[in-house]
Amino acid sequence: MSDYIRLPLEDAQALARQALLRQGFSTGHAAAIAQVLGAGERDECHSHGFYRLPGIVATVRSGKADPAAEPVVTDQAPGIARVDARRGFSPLAFERGLPLLVEKARRQGVAALAVNNCFHFSALWPEVEAIAAEGLAGLAMTPSHSWVAPAGGRRPVFGTNPIAFAWPRPGANPFVFDFATSAIARGDIELHRRDGKELQPGWAVDADGNPTTDPEAALAGAMLTFGGHKGSALAAMVELLAGPLIGDLTSADSMAFDDGAKVAPLHGELIVAFDPALFPGHGSPESSARAEALFASIVDQGARLPSQRRYAARARSNADGVTLPRSLYETMAELAA
Questions:
Q1: Residue 250 C-alpha from the chain's centroid
Q2: Any residues with CB less than 8 A from the CB of 81 and at least 6 apart, and which?
Q3: pLDDT tens, 37-66?
Q4: How far is it, in rounded angstroms, from Cα 26 to Cα 29?
Q5: Residues 263 and 67: beta-carbon distance below 8 Å
Q6: How many angstroms separate the CA atoms of 306 and 165, rounded?
């Protein structure tokens, strides 16, 4: 028997949705979470795919997250919308807040959405892609748990603190990047541990602050930022903009709230949308042509645009289905039973 199982994406999402419903999630949360998990698996971002489902369930079983929390959307200010997730998971909160964010951005050119009190587990690119699908540019950022040491330090202060950006392109997939300000995503370290693989040098230090390539030692110690002091500064920016600015927790606060439960982080998220039609470029053909010329100057010399590999993986998965470790598939089936 193979250690892996291949099935249509729709079937895998349906299984995840059923598992969430059986574990007490509301219909809205189950659908939104299964959609985001399926998007990660479809694009072969396995660390943000169905691998996350058991952890999501564990977060609810810990008593910290509400699987049926109804997000509350508030028109905070002319350029600001807010969603209180009420200690529910982030996908449904974003889904509920997106229409108001888009409306505000189209009305005045730029708008921000603050999502508060949410448990966040997903990548950010599904969110900025949803903004780009509306013809808008999008920027998103969020803290997490304090797992990452600042440049020159050895004790965790920052979260993995991802930043994502999307630029809409006529007749083509949007230009999207989504990366952690840590040298690697936390989920990828956990996958290295699961698969018995060593980490690359420069990704983490052990509990004594010594460089390590052992995933177990890294998880007990601290991750490192990418690019030294540059990544460290960006991580601090994310802490401030998606924490104190929007009245929410820092990564250290989230870790304190977790109190050893080792479940998904609780914090906020800042999302900004820009409408090119209202900026000085007026979304003109000339401005669009300049953007496309920029992209062409990258790929024409053999380099690739961010997300090109994801888009290729997406096409494969849509045609051939997704491949899951059999142990993960069986866990999902047990949760759905």
A1: 17
A2: 73, 74, 75, 97, 100, 101, 104, 111, 112, 113, 114
A3: 999 999 999 989 999 999 999 999 999 999
A4: 5
A5: no
A6: 10
Q: How far is residue 103's CA from residue 131's CA, in Å, rounded to a whole number? A: 11
Residues acting as catalytic residues: 47-48, 188
Backbone angle region of 32, left / alpha / beta, with phi > 0 → left and psi within -120 to 50 → alpha: alpha
Q: How far is CA 302 from the centre of its chain?
A: 28
Q: 218: helix, coil or strand?
A: helix
pTM greater than 0.85: yes
How many whole angstroms separate alpha carbon 161 and alpha carbon 140?
10
Beta partners for residue 120, in sequence order = none
Token pair listed for 249:
């927790």
CB-based burial label for 145 (10 Å; 0-12, 13-18, 19+): buried
Label residue 283 by pLDDT band (50, 70, 90): low
Q: pLDDT tens digit string along 120-159?
A: 999 999 999 999 999 999 999 999 999 999 998 989 999 9
Read off the pLDDT band of 280 (50, 70, 90): confident
